[in-house]
Amino acid sequence: MKTAKQLVSILFILSLLVAQFPASAQGSLPAVADSSQLVSPEVLEAAFRLQDEGVRISFHAQTGLVSFLAAQEGLSIQRLPSMSAGDSPEGLGRGYLAAYGSLFGLTGNAKQLRAMRQSSGENGLRGIHFQQLNNGIPVLGGELIVQMDAGGNLLSINGEILPNITVSTTPSLNASAAKNIALDLAAGQYEVAASALSASEPELWIYNPVLTSDVAGKTSLVWRTEITHEFAPIRELVLVDAQSGAIVLNFNQVDTARNRLTYTCNNSGTCSAPVLVCNEADPTCAAGDADAKAAHKYAGETYDFYKAYHNRDSINNAGMSLISRVHYSSGYCNAFWNGSSMTYGDGCSSSIVVDDVVAHELTHGVTQYESNLVYSYQSGAINESLSDVWGEFVDLTNSSGNDAAAVKWLMGEDIVGTGPFRSMKNPPAYGDPDRMGSPLYYKGTGDNGGVHTNSGVGNKAAFLITDGGTFNGQTIVGLGITKTAKIFYRVQTALLTSSSNYADLGNALYQACINLVGTSGITTANCANVRKATIATQMVKDSSKPVPLKPAGTITDKTPTFVWTKATGASQYQVQLLKGTKVIYTFIAGAATCKGSNCSKTPAKALALGTYKWRVRPAIGGWKAWSAWKVFKLAAPAAGFNSPFTSNAAGWAKVSGAWALKGGSYTSNGLPYKWASIVHSNNYPTLTYSVKMKRTGSEYSLANAVWFRGKATPLDSANHWHNGYYFAYSNTGHFLIGYYKSGSFYALLPWTYSSRISQNGWNTLKVTANGSYVQFFINGTRVAYGTVSVFSTGQVGLGFYRNSPAGSLAVDWATLAMTAPKSIAGSQGFNFNESAVYQGVDPSGFTLSPTETPVPTATPTLTPTPTEVVPTDTPTAPPTEVPSDTPSDIPSDTPTDTPPSETPTEPPVDTPTDSPTEPPAETPTETPTPS
Amino acid sequence: MRVALVSILIAAGLSACTLPDPASGIPESWHLSLEVSGGLAGIHRQLTLSSLGELVATDHNTATVVALQISAAELIEVANLVSRIQLAATAPAGSLPPCNDCFEYTLGISLGREQIEIVANDISLADSPFAPLVSKLNDLLQKALTGDVD
User: Fold this and answer.
1) Judging by DSSP bridges, how do beta strands A704-715 and A687-697 pair with one another?
2) Burial tier of B147 (Cβ tally within 10 Å: 0-12, 13-18, 19+)
3) Quick one: which of A78, A84, A33, A81 has its CA closest to A60?
4) Which A residues in the span 698-737 are in contact with B, Cβ-Cβ below 8 Å?
5) Residue B150 confidence (pLDDT)
């Protein structure tokens, strides 16, 4: 209890306050002080005197008014003489505020306060909670709490009062309009339909941010409403200015700590009506089965990891709910992130809901809200890799599941019988690449461009940065999980864009490290190791070391040009060429030989045939280390071929379907609904390629074709080559020209009628290609020509497409010469434009179906109709068999070089015939091609 | 790369089995293909199936190819699913709904001269009329690759 001296002093001070505010002596509350003056000197003096007497007092930082007043610990301030112990808490509270209220800014009458609620505690403690009013309208944050002991003596007063309110309390905006404004705001903010939200009935309030924040502002009359959502954790407080309709304040009152909502789909494939199993109120998901428990648990652990390591508040860093859905579909062995929730099937051999998988899926959400990496090709592979990185980091730090050394860096190792499915330490163990140049790097279109395969590159880098090791010529000292996590998080949240590729990731990892030097113990030496990891995985090049590029593989040029990458800071380079162990020559190349990122030089010395290796080293303040060896083979130029198919098919290989020599032809019965094709062994950049073939069977519209500058593998699902130029005809009398690239077909000329085609008879297709110039002939007549640039070399082949009815293709002969006109003369045939490809063309066969009508993406030089006669190819036009002594600008159908080395027993004839036995011949009747 | 070519020929007694009558609306001749890729594990599998019951299943990740003849019962089940396909009423595929780690399905259907290709993922497939056929083919694909065929 207070001493008598203290009580006397306090009563004296109170008498001063009462004297200053006479109204209070009459039971009225003091008026609110002027906030611009903060508080009067007299009140301050009284407050300081109370402090001197041991009363504890604190001041509001913005208003300067008292916000806390309390007796010393263990003591109370004796009730005033006008009070009795039996008075109600509200009466006592109002009495104390009449005495001390001026310190808090109260100046008005009792109507300025409304008793909101009472509280009681042990030892008879009582409290009364007052709400500040202005003309009957509550003030947001304007509240005072008076605490008393069992005898009614004062323990404390705390709270804030908004002083000097002069705002109009008559709204211009009605409540309904305010409600709609608030709903629209929340719908936009949370990206939900306004119809899914509900709003409480708006109430008029007075608001000034000075009481609820550190910011001073004007006092406003506002409509106050709360917006809620049936499922989502939304309880948005919205204040709408009652005069202007502007949003004055809004925030979600739901605690932004982790908020898990775990549902079951009950094995529904659509999961359109998921059932909530557990939420944050059930932290162990006691109400759920094993999958629900695991989803709930690991979602929480992943949240905790992001919170602990990066102070990240959930997926969107704003408290987003962690929605998990288990038992998706039936027999479904997979997990996915659909943009708002994590979904797990239960069709694996054991539960797929394991820690690294959950963290993997949740991280897809984090990525969505950060870099938003596009989910295809390299950016998609990085997206996947980031999910693997955080999946493994959570796995290794959460003390759940199997974290033994043998399974460290494995994804899904806890899925018994199904997992693991990736290794970050050794991606090739699961068929994934560990560097950009790996032969395992997937270049197809499946799996969104191999996002789950090519993630191996990023995964390997993450492993090397964390644990270190020697890989691809680089020795890396590991940084450990904490530093690596900091760097990756910085990359993910600050440096990557939606289209980032692996080169960007390589640069970003190093830059993130540099930016973080001095934090979390990260050093520049760490960053050097990060750089090494990105070099080792070939995300970035080691710019200090030149890399030999060409010659490589098999070449035919006896004086090859040597090409290598430029090394930063190099003044000159030394190149060394060996054959076996014998040095053939060494040469020096100055930095001036470099253009762009490469350097090159062509020594004059001619080389003999054989296998060589060469290397290069830079001079950067002295000669540096040699590069790795580059091997090449100098071979005699490949010859063309002449394949009469009378006794063998030398040089040819079956790509698909069964092929056999039969009656002087190479014949196949094809495959139902697929292509059957053969390919010749060599690559030919320049060529004159001719094939005489005959299609039998009732499928007149289907394609019979030759390929050039192509590659027989891979094949699409119908066995068509993925890459190469394509020239086809059908027995309906139509032909087609185009190319396949990465499995997609581009028509340069759609199916077009030509009278030159012998329907159901023998037809000779011929192609000439030299550089970008290509020409197409049918039975000696040029039907099309143009320039191309997609493929510069490749294999040649032939084949046909079949549906169900029986049919066959007989190939009488095929020839190829490695020469062709270097330019195109004349205007016979269609002149196509490679930049104007046609869409919707079926390469497998001619059809008049509207869906297959060619639609050019740009206007070609000529726009033929798909069904009728080619103007320059009319039957009335003179055939190409011009007199041999007549000069002509019409390209001939005859290669200009010597006949192929394999001379057939009987020379082939390049004219339509029904006889399959006539071998190919270089007929002298056609005019040599001007070149 | 190791290529395992497994040929499983099952005496299905096709000559004795009765294929659906074309007059009943079930096409006499068709050819189906299904490519499944993606998923959390990043699979890449392919199936082709003809109306004669010739099935070829390929797992590109393991370089495994399995060729087999499906049973008459399986073939009739697939034929019935094919008969319900309304190619003409098929809307052109739009962009797929976003989904990380979903499976992506490319279904090719050839019915005589008519051909169509449908691309879907787990989300878009759920409400698709092709879902039963894709599900059946996917089931056959998995069974073929695991040797668990009837």
Assistant:
1) unpaired
2) exposed
3) A33
4) 717-718
5) 63
